[in-house]
Amino acid sequence: MHAMQYELTLPADYDMDVIRHRVASKGHLLDTFPGLGFKAYLMRERGKDGSPVNQYAPFYLWNTAEGMNSFLWGPGFQGLVDDFGRPVVQNWTVLAYEEGGATGTAPAEAVPSEAAPSEAAPSEAAPRFAVRRHQRIPASARLPELAGELAAEARRTVRQDGASSALAAVDPRTWEAVHFSLWEHEAPDGLGDVFQVLHLSAPEREKLPRGRQW
């Protein structure tokens, strides 16, 4: 599995309803995308939930490299490039993925009634918030033990009330880990950067292998 994210940091006075409308009108287009475990359409607003910036920052979990490549080299991502410029795309290899008790697809109000629905109906337990935290891996770290600790943190996270899913992933080029989790309500304080989930496309979420990935 591959985790992927890009961030579009927008001006302080940017109308974030533009992003809401973009997701409401286009988010459903990936609801059946091959190879995609899920795409969380994430947004944060300056001054809310501790955010210092306005930002659109979708997070992807790919079942297959073919699916990821099809997206990055396809018309969907090119459309975003045409509108906002080409962002840096962060990519991590997933060490562990866990599901919690809340595993919905998308907030019902995130997709307008005229949009094509996903095959899976929205769930009352759909994630409404996401949390992301980066962790630098020091040169002194013993990698086998660290990998076990990262996987254990994902397991602990999904045991918390309202947790939908959690993952730990690593970029071995920069030796950076990322912790990412989805929540049906606001997450406990101190876990990381908080994002609103505007929509969740999850065509192959049920196919995502659970637990440690080594």
Description:
This protein is 21% helix and 33% strand. About 10% of the residues have low confidence.
Keywords, separated by commas or semicolons:
214 residues; alpha+beta; Alpha-Beta Plaits; 4 helices; 21% helix
Strand order of the largest sheet: 1-5-3-10-7-9-8-6
| Rg computed from alpha carbons, rounded to a whole number of angstroms | 16 Å
Q: Strand pairing plus helix content: what structural class? A: alpha+beta
Low-confidence stretches: 103-123
Q: Assess the beta-strand content as a share of residues.
A: 25-35%
Helix content: 10-25%
- CATH-defined topology: Alpha-Beta Plaits
Q: Taking all residues together, what is the mean pLDDT?
A: 90
How many helices? The count is 4
Please give the structural blueprint.
Blueprint (H helix, E strand, L loop, with lengths): L1 E5 L1 E3 L6 H10 L9 E9 L9 E3 L2 E4 L2 H8 L2 H10 L4 E11 L29 E8 L6 H16 L4 E9 L4 E8 L9 E9 L9 E2 L2
Antiparallel strand pairs: 1-5, 1-6, 2-4, 3-4, 3-5, 3-10, 6-8, 6-11, 7-9, 7-10, 8-9
Question: What's the short version?
Answer:
The chain is α+β, with helices and mostly antiparallel strands. The protein has four helices and eleven strands, in the order ββαβββααββαββββ. The protein has a single domain, classed as Alpha-Beta Plaits (2-Layer Sandwich).
